[in-house]
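Figure caption, in words: inputs first, then the predicted bound structure.
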Amino acid sequence: MPVILKKRSKKRMKKIISHVKFQKLIVPRPDVLHGYLRHEEINRYLEYLKNRYSFVQLHVLGLTHERRQLKAIEIDWNSEQNLEAVERERTRRMLYDKSAVTPLPQSVKPGSQGRNTIFIEAGTHAREWISVAVALNCIYQLTEKHLRNYELLRKLRFIIVPVTNPDGYEYTFVKNRRWRKNRRPIRHSRHIGTDCNRNYDFHWEDGPSKSGRNTFKGLKPFSEPETRAMRNILRKHKENLLFFLSLHSYAESIMYPWGYSKDLPETWQKLEKLALAGRNAIKAYNGRSYRVGSIAKLTKRRISGSIVDYVFGVINAPLALVMELPSQALGFQPPAESISPIGHESWFGIREMCKMAYDIEAPFLKLEATLLAKALTNARQPLQEADAASNKQPLYRALMPAIKAEQVLKNTQVPVKG
Ligand SMILES: [Zn+2]
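Bound structure (zinc ion present):
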């Protein structure tokens, strides 16, 4: 009798386990293309992608004043865990049908100076819902449509923060749709909230200091948990940052630094070339005509302490832009049926800019490869000669040229920002 009971309960357990597994599979995927998602739904979508794809990772960057998690998604095809998973899958398939397996195109690995990270952030300004939707569309394209975007994925790594100001974003759903700032109370003031995009430590002092204003810069640089969290992740990826893109709405423009001054940075032509690539791609797609120029010139205002000036001026990313999305006709929160068309149109522009960012910096990567090849040839030659002369050459003498070549490489400054 006890044996039968045991058998029965085992059977039951198996049934429960398979049911649980099944349930995990059918957790509905939030529809990112046809509606504005709440913060919780967005996080659920990110979790869904992390569980589904081995090239996706999530990072919690920090907590907001209202204890919401600020999350970044990292999409990195060349990550070790993904390449291992891809290899496992290939081997498994080969066992069944050798002819079905095509050789894997080689990944492009960055050199020591090779920057390969694209960083996109959106939703700093709470009411700019369409910027969040567009960031989610980028995430959708790079994950669920990764086969279409493989060319981009094998060269570049993506870090995307779709909602940089979750407290403010949620507030626009439940209380005030026109809210812009975050939701942390300001000390010694009856006002609430700081404009996170004026709170970065780059010409911060020139920003608006009245706490009642919509563009209040905060009591000091990085006074806000959101901006501190962003600063920390940007610092972490400083060496590899290739192109930083900040999404806003709704001026329909692609702009480059500076915001704090009407002067142009030395490399403005490179920035403009990048912005024009995005503009032209969108124009060719559906005829929409974005304006291109520096932030201060195009907005006719000086904007201090913004994230894009900070990333360009302090973090030293070679390429940094702001994209003010559509639509001038429909405002910050275009109707749901516009989300998908605006998302797809914007992706055309953003994808083109990512490609162009890689091409703009590619000469530097190539230069590095040439230096390496030269150094290795120089190192090999005496080694071969030494081999020919005698087999009893002391090992260190044979290795010296290689060590020297390594030193040459280390000391050779490859210009990344030019
Ligand atoms: Zn904005």
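The chain is about 45% helix and 10% strand.
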